[in-house]
Amino acid sequence: MTRLPAFLNARLPFYYGWVVLGCVCCAGFARQGPAVATLSIFVEPMTADFGWSRTAISGAVSLGGLLAAVTSPYLGVLLDRHGARTMLCLAIVATGFATMGLSLIGSLLFFYLLYCIGRMNFAGPFDLGIYGAINSWFVERRPLATSIATLAQMFGLMSMPLIAHFAIQAGDWRSGWVAVGITVLTIGLLPTWLLMARRPEDLGLLPDRSRAATAAEHARPSSDPIAEPVFTRAQAMRTPAFWMLALYTLLIYPVQAGISLHQAPHLIESGLAPTVAATVISTFSFASAIAGFGLGIVTRRIGVRAALVIVGVCLSASALALVGVDGALHAYLAAMVFGIGIGGLTTILPITWADYFGRRSFGAIRGVALTIQVTAQASGPLLSGALRDWTGDYTLSLEVFAALSLAGTLAILFARPPRAAV
């Protein structure tokens, strides 16, 4: 499995972790095929074609997330044992064929079956594989590496809805799903399969740099200011920090998924054209990319808790701003604020888990945290769809999301870094 990476590493003038990061970026782009923002483009044409309710189509997002919640703790242990390569390759293949298969459906049952496969991969294996690989290869440069990976994921999130939209415009919603599936397989699979390596130690390296460079730097202890903690899953779960991060996750992620899925239908119901709604989604994705990169760069300076407070405030403000959308400019501004929150959340929270609890059992710890995260994500679209069907618009759901974001912001203030494992 590591022969090709070892062969390349022996001839590269730079740290092989950057090659692994490139693979992670390709996988992160491919991950966005079944993203809720991508599905958002399909809500109007598919519900119009089949007559499904918004609650019914939202349920597939929720069910896929719940399946990921059940499997993530087991997958996290496998990640620690075997690395990210196989997990990511299987996720890419399954997601590509599942999204292409959605072009053939004729009933809600088959929509659930195929979309849940893609959504389960999005919420579980992709997340574990992407951040597991980054945190295995980087410690001191973890914020920079995570920021770059977020940039790639947000570029995928910006591109996939547009790919789907223009394919729908050229054909129909079935053509949109084919285009999404082909994009997932084309961009994600080959580099991940050929070039991914499990961890730097397998190639005679250490995190962030080559072994030779590290040996030269040992004479200057201050050159490595990041002391990496070492927690097992059981030790991490006995710390208050674990549960405060879990509470933040539980409160924030319904907002992320609920707004992402329903923003296009909300904007269309507010009087915006479908093309404008699609470009608004791309605007929030672009803002996510820029914000994720920027917050990642300054995280070591301001601290992860301060960055996560910024995330919560932005998500709350954007939810309230979307309540009264009355034109394209207003929608773009709200989307930019929402994008800042999403970009920060995607970048900073994985860094926080790794910084607080270390690399050794990251998969096992992240697997438990991911169960909470994807359960929260599953509740957001279902809550938003149900409240819309009940009230006739999205106002109440957006107000609920604003309140949840503020509550999460208060929770993260108490998530102090844990003391050394005992």
What's this, in brief?
The protein has 422 residues and is mainly alpha-helical. The chain has 16 helices and two strands. Helix 11 runs antiparallel to helix 14 and helix 11 runs parallel beside helix 15.
Topology of this protein?
Blueprint: H1 3-9, H2 17-31, H3 36-50, H4 54-82, H5 85-101, H6 108-137, H7 142-170, H8 173-195, E1 205-206, E2 209-210, H9 211-217, H10 233-236, H11 240-269, H12 274-302, H13 304-323, H14 328-357, H15 362-391, H16 395-412
Antiparallel strand pairs: 1-2
Strand count, sense and barrel status of the largest sheet are:
2 strands, antiparallel
Q: How many separate domains? A: 1
User: What is the first-to-last residue Cα distance?
Assistant: 36 Å
Radius of gyration from CA coordinates: 21 Å
CATH class: Mainly Alpha
Got a strand count?
Answer: 2
Which word captures the global form? globular
Please describe what this structure looks like:
It is globular and about 55 Å long. The two termini are about 35 Å apart. A two-stranded antiparallel ribbon has the order 1-2. The longest helix is centred in the first third of the chain and has 30 residues, at about 110-135. About 80% of the residues lie in helices and about 0% in strands. The chain contains 16 helices and two strands. Strand 1 (about 205) and strand 2 (about 210) form a beta hairpin. It has a single domain (about 15-205, about 230-410), classed as MFS general substrate transporter like domains (Growth Hormone, Chain: A), CATH 1.20.1250.20. By secondary structure, the protein is an all-alpha fold. The model is unreliable at about 210-225 (pLDDT under 50). It has helices at about 5-10, 15-30, 35-50, 55-80, 85-100, 110-135, 140-170, 175-195, 210-215, 235, 240-270, 275-300, 305-325, 330-355, 360-390, 395-410; strands at about 205, 210.
